[in-house]
Amino acid sequence: MHVAQISGETTIDDGRIRVTRWAFDRAGDKTGFHVHEFDYVVVPITGGRLTATDADRATTEMVQVAGASYTGPAGRAHDVAAQEDGVVFVEVELLQD
Q1: Cα distances (angstroms) measured from residue 94 to each of 7, 44, 75, 79, 97
Q2: 3.60.15.10, 2.40.50.100, 2.60.120.10, 2.120.10.30: which CATH number matches 9-94?
Q3: Does 97 score more than 70 pLDDT?
Q4: Record's superkingdom (predicted)?
Q5: Which residues contact 1 (CB under 8 A, 6 or more apart)?
Q6: pTM (2 decimals)?
Q7: CA–CA separation, 72 and 60 (whole Å)
């Protein structure tokens, strides 16, 4: 199986919010393990299947639906991997309380 670590493209970072576009070109692409410093909102662009793996190696299967936003808390730690080609989402981090 193909595995590549991807980098997000930050499009806004103004001290209040940070907006990053994540594009998984191929199944197996992953973000790399990371910890969210801030609360965040995810806006799926394409929808698609992803797997999140936490620090204890527990996995959560996710199905994103294009346009169906969801939130995540500061402190969440995981690696996210695409289970299919062409998954894209935008992450909006809320830098201020």
Answers
A1: 19, 17, 13, 20, 7
A2: 2.60.120.10
A3: no
A4: Bacteria
A5: 27, 28
A6: 0.91
A7: 14
